[in-house]
Amino acid sequence: MMKRTYSFLTKDVSTLHKRATGLHTEMIAKGKNWFGAALTIRNPVDAQERAIVDNYADFGSITPENAMKWESTEPSRGVFTFDGADAIRDYAATQKKQIHCHNLVWHSQLPLWVSQGKFDNATLISIMYDHIKAVAGRYKGSCTRWDVVNEALNEDGTYRSSVFYDTIGESFIPLAFKFASEIDPNAKLYYNDYNLEYNNAKTDAAARIVALVKSHGVKIQGVGFQAHLTSESTPTSAAVTPDQGVLEAALKKMTVQGVNVAYTELDVRMNTPVTPAKQAAQAEAYARVVRSCMAVEKCEGITIWGITDKYSWIPGVFIGEGSALVWDENYKPKPAYFAMLKAIQESPLAPRYYYQINDQVRDRYVRI
Q: Helix 276-295 crosses helix 244-255 at what angle (to 10 degrees)?
């Protein structure tokens, strides 16, 4: 047996591993798994937007914004269209980025043949299985994570009325996770929802979903906190981004059940027009979210819901609100970018140390 010699290095290792400074590389250096962004493959490609998302230092993971949703992948029963989703997969492979695949079962962006099909219980379960088998099966080995079920809850913690819940009952949730785990056993499986960040009845209900899935002996490994937040009170949200303690408590409500958490669709909107003071408040809100993730060991990573305000979904849905992303419409990083980077860098979690084994440099994380 070859004898191994160990030489531990606790000082500057820049001569061993050079890395550019960015949101993703700094997250990795602190023991997290990714910083990412939602992506739409545009035709023609927006070269300025693409140059930003290509930068691995900032983005090591991508989430398909719409390309893997049911209406995009199975517009007619048994007829699958994968061009958009394939483009995301191929881009991620070329750029060596993770994919947070999104999503398999959701009440929205469903084709009418599903939402208005009036199927009985057994038929809809079969349809759900066939869809998951086709989509998750096609991207097996490419998806680091899957949002298996998306937005199954009302704000008061009750189940949302949907074709799946109304026909199958709450068991549609563990069934979806069961099918996904059978078809792509290596992907991490997430439940994903919004307004979980306030540590309220909806947060409690998401924790019950984790318990429900586990009670069926089915794998669930994470809860995604979408984090569509505001930096000030707006006509659509009186509540602003919670303080760090509330955010951490909400995250830990899931992690105590043995699952990971992540911020999966982060954006922080404001009333427009924009002012420097509003951008400063937004930057602090983004930083609070980052600090909460860094403070919770099982918070894996953060994904922002887009790159530039030019393409954000917010103004089209929340009239009079916007400027929610981290790059402005002219592709310039906003104060929020630098606030997040600083929050990551100042985190005390998991500094990276390096050790050498027989002249090969490897890395590991040590929490102190």
A: 30
- In the chain, where the domains are located: 23-346
DSSP state of 312: -
Q: Is 58 helix (H, G, I), strand (E, B) or coil?
A: coil
- According to CATH, the topology of domain 23-346 is TIM Barrel (3.20.20)
Span between the terminal Cα atoms of the chain, in Å: 33
CB 265 within 8 A of CB 305: yes
Alpha-carbon dihedral of residues 124, 130, 133, 138, nearest 10 degrees? -130
Residue 185 and residue 183: Cα distance in Å, rounded? 6
Q: With beta carbons less than 8 A apart as the criterion, state whether 36 and 73 touch.
A: no
Residue type, 179: F
Is the CA virtual torsion 325, 284, 333, 274 positive or negative? positive
Please state the pTM of the whole predicted model: 0.90
Strands 321-322 and 222-225: unpaired
Question: Are the C-beta atoms of 38 and 303 separated by less than 8 Å?
Answer: yes
The answer to whether 264 and 192 are in contact (CB under 8 A) is yes
Q: pLDDT for 114-148, tens place per residue?
A: 999 999 999 999 999 999 999 999 999 999 999 99
Cβ neighbours of residue 183 under 8 Å, at least 6 residues apart?
A: 132, 133, 136, 137, 140
Among positive and negative, which fits the CA dihedral 103, 115, 314, 44? positive
**Cβ pair 280, 231 in contact under 8 A:** no
Annotated active-site positions, please?
Answer: 151, 265
Note the pLDDT tens digit of each residue in 9-54: 333 333 333 458 999 999 999 999 999 999 999 999 999 999 999 9
